[in-house]
Amino acid sequence: MAKIMVQGTASSVGKSILVTALCRILKQDGFSVCPFKSQNMSLNSYITLDGKEMGRAQVLQAYAAGLEPEVFMNPILLKPTSDKKSQIIVNGKVYGNSTAMEYHNMKLKFKDMLKSQFEELEKKFDIIVMEGAGSPAEINLRERDIVNMGMAELIDAPVILAGDIDKGGVFASLAGTMLLLKEDEKKRVKATIINKFRGDLEILKPGLTMLENIIHIPCAGVVPYFRLDLEDEDGAVEFNKKITAPIDIVVIKLPHISNFTDLDALKAEEDVSVRFITTKEELGNPDLVIIPGTKNTIDDLITIRDSGLMDAIKKYSNKGTILGICGGYQMLGNSLSDPSGVEGSLDKIEGMKLLDIDTLFEEEKITTRVKARSINMKTSNVKTYGYEIHMGKCSYGEKAKPLFEIYDRNADNTSMQGNIVTSFDGAINRDGNVMGTYIHGVFDGTEFREYIMNTLRVKKSIKPKKSKTYESLREKEIDKLADIVRKNIDMNMIYKIIGIKKRD
User: Fold this and answer.
1) Is 219 a residue of the active site?
2) Which of 69, 189, 194, 335 could be disulfide-bonded to 222 (CB atoms 3.0-4.6 Å)?
């Protein structure tokens, strides 16, 4: 069946975004197409309609293919909890926590599952566009590989090898990668793509010819450097540090920051600047401080406490607005208790005491999609939607009230109805300037984002504005991406590699 795999010379060379582009191009050309990445390592995850967890990169690729994200697009997700340990998610559910060596030794257990799942996908779609991870030239991992050449061999997929010229040394990276591949692996590589090019293509062309003479593989194209409002691979994200617009939003860049894609929807607000800080000196006097999610809440709380940033945030709370999301919400409370050692060896730690809540970590992970409405803000019934991924529960004290009422679980973001429920989420203080929620993607909902941004605008005597729908912005950006890639790579060569005839 028709398939193609994008591998790279290293992490962050643009594999994810190239797969996203190919999914949209092939969809535009009339094919049913599906993304697939057997193993992803990321702290940016997403919850599907059936309450399962997957990597965000495959979510964007699913949207590019015109599909609802499902975990078969990313069967294995690794979420680092420290430098040497990760939580392993298999088919959307927690499989366990393992060191790098423990996981390396268990990878081959998943080969049959990955092969059978992929074969089922081939029955449902015209083309599968696959993504590798890191580099296939990581020769120490070759024996147990299930995401690069090991996966390509398992399902007999042709490979395109992508290199990032913006880092420098792209010819050496491509040639060196090919040098370290085994002969049968080299035969799988059908073309190269050079990504993130800036400059005069005519100057580059002699190098392309020389590279082809060295590795005997054609170049399918050179993709120019571009900036679009789309999420990229974790390691490729550039965290802005400067104020670039009238509304100044500060995000605390925690050491184990997760789901920073929660802030992507703010790109739809043209007068809003989002900057990430790590020190108290960078705080300044922003209009809003956001404490985001984290994969290790207690360790990150200790880090910002010891750096003095916690005291700076507490001082800021006397006059400014603060929003905590998931782990950031938990940090705002009185205490965080972990009697089962879910996060580590520390049983209990004092929080910032900006919200009258207490968090108890539990071993069961809550993963669900939600729709919610505000109930204790100055304006009630402001709607939003998103998803929960957390292992803690919060109890309210006398000085805190719920921020949202959840009225639907596991519905999509448009019209489909899930399970009608009534439960509470988040908290808000009496003054209404400190808030917290477990809902990731809370700004995706236009109503809530518009309410918060206009509240900030009014405080600065800026005229309120109507917020744009984030989904429509994302669709336009994906189409722009597809146009850029289509114009700069040889799609006839791509179709030949896939082994399918282009439709007129």
Assistant:
1) no
2) 194
